[in-house]
Structures are given as structure tokens and as C-alpha cells.
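Same chain as my last thread, 338 residues:
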Amino acid sequence: MAVKEPAASKAKGEPKAAMAFSFADTIGGYVKRYDRNADSFTLETSDGREFTVGLTDTTNALVVRNLGEPYADATGQMRDMLVPGRFLFTYGIFYPEGGGHVYDAKQLTFIGPHAHDFVFEKPDWWVKQIQQMGNFYYAVEFGDGDPNWREYRVGIDMTGNKVGNRQETDTISRLIYGLSSAYHMTGDDKFLKAAETGTEYLREHLRNNDTGEGLVYWYHAIEIDEPSEKKILASEFGDDYQAIPAYEQIYALVGPAQLYRITGDQRIKDDIDATVSLFDKYFYDPEYGGYWSHLDPISFDGKSDALSAPTNVLVRGNTIAAISKDPIPIDAGASPRS
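reply #2:
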């Protein structure tokens, strides 16, 4: 593929240095024409750039498939599929040639079996995808039985085996969010049961409910050493080390809040309100009108000298947009469950 070189940025009279190396890249665009004699086609990107894409004896092609679906090979018919107006992705290599570049495709990815198909626009595409994802996470964490969150682990290796004895609030909460969303989209009761029991586990093991002050804060993690567990309040992540980050407290609510949309469980609403009270009392700075990104885990003070200056900042705007004193309403027509 011949590529127009950009204008030289060097001083007038200096020769333009041609790129003398090859590199791989992916291009997405619409087929304009296929030249059977040259065995190449012209691809136009959405911003109007044109690329000549060469095909070789080793170029292969496939059709996008959903999770759980078999590989859909299209190599044998890929040249017949290069009709004008068809959107596709090409992965290939740019080679330097004659002061410019040529581009040979290694793989073409068609978005559907027919010219103007976009398979992900099918009504059940995303439902099937989240079903597959939910099934995978459920099987890895809980097996074939009822969800037992004591067996949940943050770490999963490439073979699906659990690693370590740690449970972290943000990852549990995000999984609850995913399970709640999976139930919301598929109606599969096992996802709802897992989300409900997960929320109960989160509240029992990783929540501190200070009834005296009317606020809730969430632990960073627990380390399990049966029959006991070690609660860890201060974060152990990079820039957040030995502090209580605002975003971790927000993450603690995303899963239960999504479940609240389905069940209307008042206890979840109470936890949300009490966590907002934590922000109002400790993260909020009335002098400057913003929220501290971190708190000292001992004094709960955003101005503590124990917090490093690069780590702790005063932020405004969307800092706590993920939580609200008026949580997302329950879906219309839903039957709240306690």
C-alpha cells in the first residue's frame, strides 16, 4: 500500500528522511473497490483517508463471533466479500518501499456474514455475551453449587484456578455489579442469588457501620486464614498506599447500588446514605469546597501530614458522582425484594 508521506518538518533544503523500518497496525474502514488483478483493495477510514491493502497467499479472514460461539473462518470467500461499502478491520504490516510504504494484510475481520451486517446489532448479542461472562465468573468462583463468597478470591490464573487468600472490597463490589447486570439482562436467577449473597457478604465482612456517628466506611481488603480473617483498612495499592482513597469507598457501593435498582432493599439504601455521610463529614473540605482524594486512616483527616502531597489532592466536580443521596430509582414495574 502506498502511503502519502507527511510534509517535512525540517528546515528548508534539508532532505526528508524516509522511514526505513516495518511495523504492524490495524485499520478499520469501508471497502471502496477490489482490484482482482492486483489482488488488493482500497479501504477508506471514517475520516476519509484511503489505504491500499494488499492480499497474500497467507492472508486469512474471519467473521466476528460472540463469546461462546465457534470460530467462523472466511478465508476461502474473503475476496468475494470485498464489496463496496462493507466495513471491516484489517491487521497487517507496513513495509518500506520506494521511499514510501506498502501494506499487506495478515488478517481480515468482517463484522458480519453479509455486506451491511453488524452482528453486534442483533437484539440478543449483548444478552448472550453477558450470559457467557456471567457463567464463566460464576463457574470459576462458585463452581456448580450455590454461591459461597467465602471461597471468592481476587486472583485467578490463566487456567481459572484461584490464587492467594485475599478478598478486596472493590473487586467484590464490581463482580456484584456485573452479576446484577447479568440478571437484569438475562433473568437468570443464579446471577441474582449470587449478587444478593455477595452484597450480604460485603456488608458482613468488609463494612464498618458506625451507628454512633451515623456513617459507614469500607475496608480495603481482608486476608483469610480460616477460621479467622485480618481486616485491612488502609489501601495497599501504589499511590494510595496507607491511605483511604475516595474511589475505593465509591467502588464499595457500585455493586450494591446496582442490586438496589432490582430489589429495592432498604438496607442498601441506608448503606449508601451512611457512606455519603462519610464523604460529607471527612472527605469534604468546607474551606475550599471540594473533596479530598484520600484520608489518613488514623485521623480521617484529608490534611494530615501523614499523607504525601503528590498523593492527596483536593478535587471538585464529579468526585462522588457515583453515589447520591437520592440513589438511582428502582426500575419501573419492578417488585422490590427485601
